[in-house]
Amino acid sequence: MKVAVLKFGGTSVADPEKIQRAAERAIEMRRQGYRVAVVVSAPGEMTDELIGLAKRVAPEPDERELAHLMSTGEIVGTSLFAMACRAQGALAVSLSGPQAGFRCEGSPTVSAITSIRPRRVLAEMAAGRIVAVAGFQALAPNGDTATLGRGGSDLSAVALAAVLKAERCDIYTDVKGVYTADPRVVPDARKLARISYEEMLELSGAGAQVMLARSIEVAQRFRVRLHVRSAFQPVAGTWIEELPEAAMEKAHVSSLAHDASEVRLTVVGVPDRPGVAALVIAALAESGVPVDMIVQSSPTTRGVNDISFMCPRSGLRAAAKALEAAAKRLGARKVDVQEDVVKITAVGTGFRRSPKVAAVMFDALAKQRINIEMITTSDLKICTVVSKEHADIALRALHKAFGLGRR
Amino acid sequence: MKVAVLKFGGTSVADPEKIQRAAERAIEMRRQGYRVAVVVSAPGEMTDELIGLAKRVAPEPDERELAHLMSTGEIVGTSLFAMACRAQGALAVSLSGPQAGFRCEGSPTVSAITSIRPRRVLAEMAAGRIVAVAGFQALAPNGDTATLGRGGSDLSAVALAAVLKAERCDIYTDVKGVYTADPRVVPDARKLARISYEEMLELSGAGAQVMLARSIEVAQRFRVRLHVRSAFQPVAGTWIEELPEAAMEKAHVSSLAHDASEVRLTVVGVPDRPGVAALVIAALAESGVPVDMIVQSSPTTRGVNDISFMCPRSGLRAAAKALEAAAKRLGARKVDVQEDVVKITAVGTGFRRSPKVAAVMFDALAKQRINIEMITTSDLKICTVVSKEHADIALRALHKAFGLGRR
């Protein structure tokens, strides 16, 4: 019998009515002949509320206790989910992460799944029950319950699907699927029927909120077919899966992502000596801030370079401090910070084989008189940085230029 | 090293400030040289809120899922408690009921503790940590978490104290201890410094809300010294313990309890034949309603009796229905229901040896022209039932007559 793993995020189980609707989806999947395991998140804002409570008790709550506290949210979600299934006449049972056999290692609130021993999940499914499994949590080697960090429930679902050799893993969420661009910005954005793991990874890295790279990587490694879909409308979403070679051969753009959460830092007037760029990057690495899109301009005047980076807004202060110090040591002129920027990324395949894609992109922006602040390219993506005021126009122009809205 | 088990009820950990204060109490106990384990309930109304949520998802929530759901409340309480201890500089760790070694059997929401394997509790205490244990929950034989029913957290604390051979078990609550009568009714009611298990059991059975009989029985069996005290004021409460023989010898009244939660039922005009009372009681037993104070009057006119009972208000309808049927079968005249009654119980010792106590009681009520509707006596208590309108006057008169307010 085929197995389907379903996953409902916090917004999909935010209140009793939504929980009942989520239960309907699981029962419908059961009716289609699947054995069904459902990974459930904490309802609505519950995790944030618990963290808020913790911070009122202790300004810096202990990590181990925080994990114990937060893990209750998913137990609440799964118990309510199983009750809702039973109220609709289906057999169902809820299991905590440890009960479902999830083992992990690492820090209490940012653990990594090491293994899943699905003995009880298999037994409950074999008995015809819908098994609601608490996501985001697992048993640590010392017998404690640890949590898996951001995107942990998605990871629980994908890992469970891998271990159960599930035919599919349906991620129910508050969006209808993966779009050619953010529909809030680009009105004729189109829902993709399918996308490859590689492209989805790039989209995720480029700021698409649908799923974190972490879970997509595991899905790719174990060939778990993901189906990202709406928890509220019973229509097909987007399949994330291995696509046939043929489709991969042709250079094409699948989707545009944009990300306003990063800022641009530039070290201006760095001496053009070997090893200088490495020193700047080492200074940044020491600050612990992740950087992206490292671009060094060609030397222009009197043998000096500019080196630019994108980094998360939250890391701006630390990164700027590290760069100021490095600039001083190297005799660079100054450090520039540009906060009002948006990164726009075209994700697809075959870009290296076909420079035409980049040409279309730059041409479309030029026609709108939009200045491109930074560019990087790879085989799977082309990133450009534009000023915030032009971002929406740029996104719509690119969407049109790549013909993403038409079918 | 001596061990102290502390227990904080829901009202004592209802908000972050109260949790911090509760943590202070545990740290103070640690400072006095005890190894400390703390049983913590779910904060405030959390359990009721979870049940409310469950009923919105499923009109009749599955018991097993309900136990899973409710058990999260105590995890939240203990995690926050341990965080609060750490924020005040003490070592602390929280454990779920199953982690603390609590095993149980029975129905998922009304389980009975079968054993405690305190290996981890002992290890954590030996490492100098205050161990916060989730009350009200234990591991069922099938690996599920079950809950212990009403008063379950008290029971967890008393059982843990027994297994750890604790020198004391401090029950922190929203009252300051056990009083000679309810201070809200009797202004000069006095807090008792100590009371015997036997008397406390009678008080509990007579309607005192301090602790359920269930936990007191276990404390008595394992000679756990209980200390009922305020969570909000750092003063001594009431010790519940084995009292020296000397004190037991003298007939005395310790405390008065009153209970307005019961109603009186009377089968009027039952034929005075052997076995008739037994038939009436059998009918009641079949209705499942617990009864109390069964009193049969001596035959008065034409060989007929009246048989009266007290039963919980909640069971009135079922009990009345059973009695109506029995009355018809036996040819009794009718069934009388008296709802506005209050049971007042004097608890103490040596009543059988000294009829003087009963005499003082009846005399005091007679002086107030209060009619006694029913009476039963045992060696440890004298119960009287009076009409509701006279209850407060009766309680104050008795408190004075027994000299309970003076010291």
Textual characterization of the structure:
Chain A is an alpha/beta fold and 407 residues long. The first copy, chain A, has a domain at 3-174: Carbamate kinase (3-Layer(aba) Sandwich), CATH 3.40.1160.10. Chain A is built from 12 helices and 20 strands. Chain A has helices at 16-31, 46-57, 63-87, 119-126, 152-163, 197-205, 213-221, 245-249, 276-287, 316-330, 356-367, 391-401; strands at 3-8, 35-40, 92-95, 102-107, 110-116, 130-134, 137-139, 145-147, 168-173, 194-196, 226-230, 238-241, 252-259, 262-271, 292-296, 304-312, 334-338, 341-349, 374-377, 381-387. Chain A has an 8-stranded mixed beta sheet with strand order 3-6-2-1-9-11-12-10, with helices on both faces. In chain A, a hairpin with a 3-residue loop joins β19 (374-377) and β20. The radius of gyration of chain A is 24 Å and the shape is globular. The interface between A and B is large, with 38 and 38 residues.
**Beta fraction of chain A:** 25-35%
Overall body shape of chain A: globular
* Largest interface: chains, residues each: A-B, 38 and 38 residues
Numbering strands along the chain, what is their spatial order in the largest sheet of chain A? 3-6-2-1-9-11-12-10
Alpha carbon gap, first and last residue of chain A: 37 Å
- Tell me the CATH architecture of the domain at 3-174 in chain A: 3-Layer(aba) Sandwich
Q: Structural class per helix/strand content of chain A?
A: alpha/beta
Instruction: Say which CATH homologous superfamily of the domain at 3-174 in chain A is assigned.
Output: Acetylglutamate kinase-like
- Write down the Rg of chain A: 24 Å
Tell how many strands the DSSP assignment of chain A holds. Answer: 20
